[in-house]
Amino acid sequence: MFRALRIAFLLFAFCPAAYASEWRESPEIAAVFAAAGAKGTFILYDVAGGVSIGYDHKRAETRFVPASTYKIPNTLLGLETGAVTSVDEVLPYGGESQPVKAWERDMSLREAIRVSNVPVYQELARRIGLERMRAGLAALDYGNGEVGSEVDRFWLDGPLRISAIEQARFLARLAGKGLPASREAQAAVREILLLEQTSERALFAKTGSALSASPHVGWWVGWVETSGRVYTFALNMDITPDSAPAERIELGKACLRALGVW
Question: Exposed site from 118, 151, 165, 215, fewest CB < 10 Å?
Answer without folding.
Answer: 215
